[in-house]
Amino acid sequence: REGASEGGKGKMAAKLIPVSLVRAASSCLGAPLSAVLRREVGRRAAFSSGPRGRSMATMPLGAADRERFDREGFLVVEGALDKKTCQDMMTRVGELISAWQPEHLSVFSTKQEMRQTDEYFLESSDKIHFFLEEKALAADGSFTTDKALCLNKVGHGLHEQDPLFRSVTQRPEIAQAVSALGYISPDLVQSMYIFKQPHIGGEVVTHQDSTFLYTDPPSCLGLWFALEDATLENGCLWAIPGSHKGGISEVFHRNPDYPQGPLCTFRAVGEGATGGRRW
Fold it and tell me: 179 with 172: CB under 8 angstroms?
């Protein structure tokens, strides 16, 4: 769903392709193990596209879509959400931010998960919590800019706690698209609104979502919606086609020895696991 940043594609041995040089209201559906990457440049985009005019509502996914999804590990669908819905979601998040009175400040970093992960993060699955960029706080703990521009994301229970996000995520056409990809009775376990902040936006390193949402056998599916146009300049997704077939190398889990060591840590898992950061 998300991943590495500026300069990352020059260091990868696998072939990277941009999957969201696209307009708003589109969706990228990522397979359980797919390594999808995003350049971290740009303005506030949030959740990306494919053939012009495609819509999940008017053109349900078919056998060709399923075949491509199984082969490449992701599928791009334009027109997944109408523009009014996109604007409504952005407006709603603006309202949530305005009402947010920061009491606990939690920084989200894909480069320092073990050091930055805290109980506020782990307890957010059924709540609406706010997570800051790494450069959002000054030495004295104050915001370096307006609080709306300091946020990395809002999550992870928007689909449960907010009526608008709940209604969007439970739309029949989205459920039908997931079913068309072979999923039976899927559960919504996590939702987030991701910002692409100017100047202080942090790098999102290459990763597999199943590292953090692990099941055996793997079953994690990510849906990424572009609420604004996603381009090379402002922070689009990147993917390694077929990378979902390589297996999971590690999982992020609670450290049983905590407080001796970090609250959470990485553990090697699966065939071919090396004990290190595979991606």
Answer: no
